[in-house]
Write a structure and sequence with these properties.
Blueprint: H1 2-13, H2 18-32, H3 39-45, H4 48-67, E1 71-75, E2 78-83, H5 86-95, E3 102-105
Length: about 120
């Protein structure tokens, strides 16, 4: 349904005069940048998600040996949960209020990756 509306709007937009198209483009750009009620979406819009993920990657590099063989849920440099049961780790992180926790299984550096059959 939304796709049909989008296509209809696109067909109508190309029929506008160039100045009207520019005004529409400005309106859409401003409207797309309005703050969202969803905190994860707000983080993604202002680039904060990348900064958080970089902190998580640095944390993993620093603490790999300490948490090798475990699942770890992170929010930036904060450990939300860790253990051998990935589902439990994820559930505990969600219970702490993080909408989309970063969960990773930390492999030991000396272990070869498993490629499957």
């Amino acid at each position: 349904m939304k796709t049909n509306l989008l296509e209809k709007v696109k067909r109508q937009a190309v029929q506008l005069a160039p100045q009207e198209q520019m005004a529409l483009a400005e309106f859409l750009q401003k409207n797309a940048q309005k703050p969202s009620a969803d905190p994860q979406e707000q983080l993604a819009r202002n680039g904060t998600t990348d900064k958080i993920r970089q902190k998580e990657q640095k944390w993993i590099a620093k603490h790999r040996a300490e948490f090798a063989g475990q699942w770890v849920a992170l929010d930036g440099e904060t450990v939300l949960s860790h253990g051998t049961d990935g589902r439990r780790v994820y559930a505990e992180a969600k219970a702490k209020g993080v909408k989309v926790p970063f969960v990773i299984h930390i492999e030991p550096l000396d272990e070869l990756p498993f490629g499957g059959w």
